[in-house]
């Protein structure tokens, strides 16, 4: 019996030998371009905003800890919407959800551009994150439907769009900050979103709908309470007795929320996050891997410009440009990963790529050697990390989905959700450590070392993930 069949959860349909894989649809490459343009918009926005944290803090006159919520609240919105996005795509259609989400993101980008207070900016960034979370599962479902038997390679290639945005985002963000204002960073999304929505409306065919289950309002509420409480506990609510008391209360609420949400997911078959997709047949290990993978990769990307500015005093443009090294490394190695995926399976690529990511994290935390300029040292470290990400990304994108091939949208939503949870924890903890430390640069380096140790530990767990060679 193969690894794949051993890892299929109970009740999941197994492919019959007499059933051939579906044929690719016409105009699939144009559809891929449309959904990729939307993904590029989301990726570009996330990395561009990361370069502007100190500028926004100075312009609006708020502490850096508050400014960091611009990044973390965006991730919270994604996390809350990702499992819901998979459900809505199944119920109302992936095409409709995709188009509404892209159009909404464009509107919210305009509102971010005119925001004059940190409260309004944080609120609209949350709505942007919700739009992103709704779009991603639908986009993956659209790609899988249009490519049929080639969906494994198409979905693996879909990941490579993210590093392109990571290359352009810091450059665009740094350039806009240099010649204009942080407000204009959000306006870059408008033309990209309009083109993606118009082309998508004209070309995308609706994938089959699979479910009409009602929306799990209670589960979503528990998820919101748990995540917000965890973020408050990590970032803190101020100094003194009252601040410590509020932090303790938030931590207790977060622990209670995890217990209540787990109990709810176990009891309700149509929960917003089904329990069978959390722990069933190999998915449990993959979900833990995604949490720490997100903490290392998403967290590192979000805090690298801040770390470079606080430890080495780099200008915003130079600090943001460091992420281009990570993106270039990802693009260079992701093609290799896609080409090897069917031959080796995803497990060897996953383990090898994460080991390279650990090396990149450790290099970035080290002091430059042999009088190497800090910007060159960090650029090399980010490039090494990017190579590891390129090897890991396509493999991690397929790992798990082949276990439940009829739940691509749901599994995609959960995969990204768990990564964003890890990213939120990493960003919140790192920015809190930097803001509270008398030596913020060294505090940032310590946080990066912790991320490297955690990812090294989860790499050992990844060896137990069921492997899959060939198509799925």
Automatic annotation (TrEMBL):
Its main location: membrane. The keyword Transmembrane helix applies. Residues 12-23 have a biased composition (Pro residues). Pfam families: MFS_1. Residues 31-469 form the Major facilitator superfamily (MFS) profile domain. Keywords: Cell membrane, Membrane, Transmembrane, Transmembrane helix, Transport. The chain crosses the membrane at residues 30-54, 66-85, 97-120, 126-143, 155-176, 182-203, 215-236, 242-262, 283-308, 314-341, 348-370, 376-396, 416-436, 442-463. Coiled coil: none annotated. The keyword Cell membrane applies. It is found in: Cell membrane. Residues 1-23 are annotated as: Disordered. It is a multi-pass membrane protein. This is EmrB/QacA subfamily drug resistance transporter.
């Amino acid at each position: 019996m193969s690894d794949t069949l051993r890892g299929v959860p109970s009740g999941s349909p197994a492919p019959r030998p007499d059933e051939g894989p579906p044929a690719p649809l016409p105009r699939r490459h144009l559809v891929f371009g449309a959904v990729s343009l939307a993904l590029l918009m989301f990726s570009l926005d996330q990395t561009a905003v990361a370069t502007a944290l100190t500028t926004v803090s100075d312009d609006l006159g708020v502490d850096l800890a508050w400014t960091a919520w611009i990044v973390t609240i965006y991730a919270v919105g994604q996390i809350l919407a990702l499992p819901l996005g998979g459900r809505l795509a199944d119920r109302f259609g992936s095409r409709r959800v995709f188009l509404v989400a892209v159009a909404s993101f464009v509107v919210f980008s305009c509102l971010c551009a005119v925001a004059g207070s940190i409260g309004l900016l944080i609120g609209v960034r949350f709505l942007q994150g919700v739009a992103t979370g709704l779009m991603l599962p639908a986009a993956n479902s659209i790609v899988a439907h249009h490519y049929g038997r080639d969906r494994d390679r198409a979905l693996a290639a879909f990941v490579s769009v993210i590093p392109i945005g990571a290359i352009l985002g810091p450059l665009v963000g740094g350039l806009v900050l240099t010649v204009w204002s942080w407000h204009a960073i959000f306006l870059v999304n408008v033309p990209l979103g309009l083109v993606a929505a118009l082309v998508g409306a004209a070309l995308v065919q609706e994938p089959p709908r699979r479910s009409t289950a009602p929306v799990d309002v209670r589960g979503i509420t528990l998820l919101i309470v748990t995540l917000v409480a965890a973020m408050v506990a990590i970032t803190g609510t101020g100094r003194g007795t009252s601040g410590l008391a509020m932090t303790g209360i938030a931590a207790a609420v977060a622990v209670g929320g995890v217990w209540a949400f787990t109990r709810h997911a176990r009891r309700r078959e149509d929960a917003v996050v089904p329990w069978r997709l959390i722990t069933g047949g190999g998915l449990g290990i993959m979900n833990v891997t995604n949490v720490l993978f997100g903490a290392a990769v998403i967290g590192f990307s979000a805090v690298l410009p801040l770390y470079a500015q606080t430890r080495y005093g780099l200008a915003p443009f130079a600090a943001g440009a460091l992420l281009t090294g990570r993106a270039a490394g990802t693009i260079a190695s992701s093609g290799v990963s896609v080409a090897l995926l069917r031959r080796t399976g995803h497990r060897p690529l996953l383990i090898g790529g994460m080991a390279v990511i650990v090396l990149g994290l450790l290099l970035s935390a080290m002091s430059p050697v042999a009088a190497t300029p800090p910007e060159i040292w960090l650029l090399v470290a980010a490039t090494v990390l990017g190579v590891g990400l390129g090897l890991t990304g396509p493999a991690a994108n397929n790992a798990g989905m082949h276990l439940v091939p009829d739940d691509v949208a749901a599994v995609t939503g959960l995969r990204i959700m768990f990564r964003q949870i890890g990213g939120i924890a990493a960003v919140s903890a790192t920015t809190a450590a930097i803001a509270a430390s008398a030596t913020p640069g060294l505090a940032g380096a310590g946080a990066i070392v912790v991320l490297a140790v955690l990812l090294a530990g989860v790499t050992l767990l990844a060896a137990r993930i069921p492997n899959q060679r060939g198509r799925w």
